[in-house]
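Morning F.,

Quick status update on the modeling queue. The single chain you submitted on Monday has been processed. Sequence for confirmation:
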Amino acid sequence: MTKISVLGCGWLGLPLAENLIKNGFTIKGSTTSIEKMPVLESIGVQPFLIALSEKEILGAMATFLENSKILIIAIPPQLRGLATENFVAKISNLIAYLEQSSVSQVLFVSSTSVYKDDNMVVTEDTLAKPATESGKQLLACEQLLLNNKNFETTIIRFGGLIGPNRNPARFLAGRKNIENPNAPINLIHQEDCIGMIMKIITNNVWNEIFNGVAPFHPTRVLYYTKKAAELHLESPHFNSDVVSNGKTISSEKAMRILEYEFQFKAL
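Structure tokens below.
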């Protein structure tokens, strides 16, 4: 029975861990909240209290990785708003433990923010030119993992995440002067995130990069106005005076190589 460690049992990592258990895997899971430890244990996850910092790792990381074949890294960088951190340093500290562990495969959850808004169709062969600090640090972490010969790494770059208790339409409701109304959306449902990760693991697909975005790309103004109406929220107001910048993320490679069929083709 393959043992997997899931670093970051949050909005995505927790239901992913639960799905992996249902499919016969033995799971260790980490959280930074002591209150969440019983939640992990209740679904069959062996819980660990672990926190990565720029200088050190707090918690029993060596034990968390012990006897695991696969590590899934599902911790986003804290770089939104006024939050700043050296996420690259955190991953570098983690790699030092990985090199001494039994882990032979790593799956790193990244983001399509590594691609610049160039108003073009983006594939995995498109040169990553991140414009945001989050995108820059994620790309640097990707390279650290991919270039390490002690384990195999697959990167999955998800678009905007939607699903239970998470819909960007709520965040945009009633806001004024929103940019890029005619840019296409690039979203993916939580269930498809989990489905793609399951395909990578069960098909043993490593040393690859995949985009994870539903094949559904209406403009931002059309999508969010419609969603606000459906959710009975105040409509967002977009600024059409400036030319929109965006990108259309293609997941054709994942659909072809992983033979993955999106469950949520329209969101």
